[in-house]
């Protein structure tokens, strides 16, 4: 689509645009280094993509250079017989003199009514804007848990899963591949073996800013259900403590019964728009793991 007045056009981001888009986003997000964007875009570029979806998203172009970008990270979910398409709407930035054209990006990004779009990292000042665009909240905040203080279930055994792990007893092939692929992205992947079942977990290292000194934590990226994390919190807490990460951040609607910690709603909101509401405790294949926290 071309706009003759300012010679601005909106088009898909291609492989040849990665360097220029990384430069643009580095300017737009001063807290992120250029290698952060390059690493994430190259990781995403190597993933299998659902058919018919744009590989990276869209950019605004003027005089042959990107002046705005919106990254779109598509993935396919199959919780039942039907495939569900999800798209993580990520990293929207437009240079100030071109902000009048910013809506071109959002209109292109959300045109497929069969896709569920998620925004997992909206800044607090953008919450009203996100809601005005038709997004609904599915996560109210974060629970900061100290799983070490939870009771350890008798007989629990933790298996660390890496990219080299071939199979895990008690997990499906799809769950094993999910753990392996995310371990390759830098996540910590565990299978917790209990007497009656085996449960998969994914965590990503994160530093929580509080005052002048950030402190280390883990963000829960995936489990089948938050109740499974509560059940396995004791052994997981001990395994994480050995790695210097006693604190776990869990997406939540409010305080989580059965966990020691505290809940905040001043950060961590997450939104969706589309036919299939996301569930808590599934941030797989999103910017959090592809690009990093």
UniProtKB/TrEMBL annotation:
Source taxon at top rank: Bacteria
Name listed for the protein in its UniProt record: Acyl-CoA acyltransferase
Annotated organism of origin: Rhodopseudomonas thermotolerans
Upper taxonomic lineage: Bacteria, Pseudomonadati, Pseudomonadota, Alphaproteobacteria, Hyphomicrobiales
């Amino acid at each position: 689509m071309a706009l003759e007045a300012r010679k601005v056009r909106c088009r898909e981001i291609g492989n040849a645009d990665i360097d220029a888009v990384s430069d643009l986003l580095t300017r737009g997000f001063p807290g992120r280094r250029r290698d952060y964007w390059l690493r994430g875009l190259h990781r995403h570029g190597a993933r299998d993509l659902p058919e018919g979806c744009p590989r990276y998203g869209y950019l605004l172009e003027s005089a042959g250079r990107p002046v705005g970008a919106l990254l779109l990270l598509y993935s396919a979910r199959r919780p039942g017989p039907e495939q569900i398409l999800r798209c993580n709407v990520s990293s929207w930035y437009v240079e100030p003199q071109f902000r009048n054209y910013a809506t071109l990006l959002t209109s292109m990004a959300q045109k497929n009514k069969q896709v569920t779009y998620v925004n997992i990292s909206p800044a607090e000042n953008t919450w009203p804007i996100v809601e005005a665009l038709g997004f609904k909240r599915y996560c109210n905040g974060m629970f900061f848990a100290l799983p070490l203080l939870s009771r350890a279930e008798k007989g629990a055994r933790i298996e660390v899963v890496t990219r080299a792990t071939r199979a895990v007893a008690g997990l499906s092939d799809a769950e094993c591949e999910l753990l392996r692929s995310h371990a390759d992205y830098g996540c910590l992947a565990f299978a917790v073996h209990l007497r009656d079942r085996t449960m998969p977990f994914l965590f990503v290292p994160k530093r929580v800013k509080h005052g002048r000194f950030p402190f280390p934590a883990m963000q829960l990226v995936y489990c089948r259900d938050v109740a499974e994390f509560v059940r396995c919190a004791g052994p997981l807490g001990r395994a994480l403590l050995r790695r210097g990460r006693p604190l776990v951040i869990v997406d939540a609607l409010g305080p989580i019964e059965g966990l020691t910690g505290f809940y905040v709603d001043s950060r961590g909101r997450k939104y969706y728009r589309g036919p299939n509401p996301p569930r808590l405790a599934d941030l797989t294949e999103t910017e959090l793991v592809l690009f990093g926290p």
